[in-house]
Design a protein that fits this description.
about 220 residues, alpha/beta, 6-stranded mixed sheet, 4-stranded antiparallel sheet, 7 helices
Amino acid sequence: MEKLVLDNVKYTYRSEYQEVNALKGISFEFVPGKIYSIMGTSGSGKTTLLSLMAGLDTPTEGSIILDDVKTEDMDLEEYRREKVSVIYQDFRLFPLLTVAENIMYPMELKGMKSKDALLKAKELITKVGLKEEYLNRFPSMLSGGEQQRVSIARALGMNTKLLLADEPTGNLDTKNTDNIIDILLSLAHNDSYCVIVVTHDEDLAEKTDEVLHIIDGLRVEK
């Protein structure tokens, strides 16, 4: 990955009865090796922007460009599978799968053999600060902070350099929040990931390299 570019991104929600202009022209550039935060009040458009960067839809106007190719010109399913990984506030782990199976799932989905996926899962669980013994546990046996670490490990199993996080510390206490922030910082600064975090947490935002502030669908300088 070289860079992700937002070029005058606009997005309008349309229904039979109304139109809502959620994004009104956002331009910004993200590069590997840095961690970014996107901040704004509820309804500002930041979650819509994250969804577009995740490939769930394309802009109504303007473009999202990854390595000089517009997402509108891509197969979005392939983009979501091959180019981007997403971490969610509510973890979204499969409750009936073990930690190992959760981490292995995206790797096997991409055709990796189970034996190789398990070896990679052992590597990734250690990378997020958990012991291998956690691999045999189920999500319900883990704390919130541990579940979020597993969700990060699963995202890393996608083997993409673009990592999006939607309020990754929103359900965590201060200690676990600090741990997750440290992991994300390390992934950006030490492993050259491009990490983009949507957050309300000002302490988290202060630790990121750059902050994109959005108010009423527009980028603002602070």
